[in-house]
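Q: Hi! First time doing this. I have a protein sequence and I read that you can turn it into a structure. Is that right? Here it is:
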Amino acid sequence: MPDGTSRLKTLDGQQIFHFMGCSTFAEYAVLASISLAKLNPEANPFTCCVLGCGIPTGWGAVMNNPNFHANSSVAVWGLGAVGLAVIQAAKAKGATRIYGIDINEKKFEIAKEFGATNCFNPKNGDTRAWLTSQEKWGINFTYDATGSVAVMREALEMAHRGFGESMVIGVAAAG
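A: Yes, that's right. Below is the predicted 3D structure, encoded as structure tokens:
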């Protein structure tokens, strides 16, 4: 919880700490109001559960950026739920070149289904060199969805010189 306490316990009384201000798999819990979202009672909990973090975070990072524009280039590091939502939103907003970057090539097919135009595995070469070969001066909008500080830096450095924007939406480990 924001105050450093926990209100959850195991059946034998052992305290359980929350992850990033919220937790799940509890029959009952006392939560801070900031950690709650009201759902329509008719909503299917088995399908709306994906709205918990990944989709609103990635989608919102694009849709809530007043500078995002059509015909732009986008690069996304990390092709999990957050990264895929970034790709989907970027395509919906008219991005024409969307680069997906991940070390798991099994994610490339779905990234392309969501709107990625090209994908790259950093284990197969230098991401900076690959992106520069695609976009000489850098990317209009870069998104880190990994939480890796090294990747955050790479995404920032690949933003277009002069006017590119870099969004860090992955959460790095404490410290």
